[in-house]
Design goal:
- The chain has 307 residues and is mainly α.
- It folds into two domains: 67 residues, Helicase, Ruva Protein, domain 3; 201 residues, Methane Monooxygenase Hydroxylase, Chain G, domain 1 (Up-down Bundle).
- 54% of the residues lie in helices and 5% in strands.
- It has a three-stranded antiparallel sheet.
- Helix 5 packs antiparallel against helix 6.
Length: 307
């Protein structure tokens, strides 16, 4: 963070201390040269808008350009632009409500080399493990595009969901056949390669052996995210409208449209790893958790759809 402060002190800006801290969190592996380049790009963006003061949006846009590249100069026809906005807004609504382990960086319907649009996210903490409940949320976020398209287009969906389904299937196959997060505890990764007849990535064999279990798990998570999006249908429509108008928005913009903090649904209904309070794991806590159990937060009344 000190490096950012040093370069920002050399230019005129109005970033708050909290924003500088957030910037440092969003760019954990930036070298001094990359930080200098980012600040300079932010200054260029400000000058283009005839300002001499760098604002947060300048730095945020500069970072997006550096990491994702500029969008292609392509305009969708109106009907397709609306469909892409619904697709990305569906991802964003699910990600905003469900994820407490990651935060939305940006949502865009601008075409880039590898995608028609995107929801880019950042890890909130530098952790080394993944948990079943968090992976299930990630799968729901992937499946949200299919759920949203079918919800708004009479049960129809585009080929644009293909990469989302691939990601969801890949994660689910790892959960079922490798991570011990499914209906059994056998790990196909532990079988001899001569038995698997696969590369070290065993997901292909997992899908062959456990296709029914994987499909059942995907269907369950799909139905859950369908219900979530239906409950927040109005929020989804509003967010899609903002995307059609502005094309690219930040995670803060998503929170403003939704009117709730990120991860609010999971905070209301915590499960598994997210539900265990740190003191429940401490032997010095006021109340010790029973072996094999963690003390969980009291659950409030179920929020009204749209909260």
């Amino acid at each position: 963070m000190e490096t950012f402060r040093g370069y920002l002190e050399k230019v005129k800006h109005n970033l708050t201390e909290a924003q500088v801290e957030q910037l440092a969190t969003m760019t954990p592996y930036y070298s001094g040269a990359k930080i200098k380049d980012l600040v300079n790009e932010g200054l260029i963006l400000a000058i283009r808008e005839e300002r001499d003061t760098i604002e947060w949006q300048d730095i945020w846009k500069a970072r997006s350009l550096k990491e994702l590249g500029p969008p292609e100069d392509v305009e969708y026809i109106e009907r397709e632009r609306h469909a892409v906005a619904i697709h990305e807004a569906s991802h964003a609504v699910a990600a905003h409500l469900l994820r407490s382990h990651r935060m939305i960086d940006l949502v865009s319907i601008e075409k880039r080399q590898t995608a028609l649009g995107m929801v880019a996210s950042l890890d909130i903490e530098d952790r080394v493990t993944q948990w079943r409940t968090e992976l299930e949320i990630d799968i729901k976020v992937s499946l949200a595009s299919l759920a949203g398209e079918r919800m708004f287009f009479g049960g129809d969906n585009s080929s644009g969901v293909s990469s989302d389904l691939r990601s969801a299937t890949h994660l689910t196959s790892l959960m079922e056949g490798v991570y011990g997060m499914g209906g059994g505890i056998l790990s196909l990764a532990g079988l001899p390669q001569s038995v698997i007849s696969q590369t070290p990535d065993p997901t292909g064999k997992v899908v062959q052996q456990m296709a029914d279990r994987i499909e059942d798990r995907l269907q369950q998570l799909y139905e859950e995210v369908c219900e979530l999006l239906e409950q927040h249908r109005d929020d989804l429509v509003r967010l899609a409208g903002v995307l059609e108008e502005r094309k690219t928005i930040s995670g803060d913009d998503v929170a403003e449209v939704m009117g709730t903090p990120a991860g609010s649904w999971t905070a209301h209904f915590p499960q598994g790893f997210a539900a265990v309070q740190p003191e429940a794991l401490s032997p010095d806590g006021e109340k010790r958790a029973a072996p094999g159990n963690g003390r969980v937060r009291d659950r409030p009344e179920e929020p009204v759809a749209g909260d």
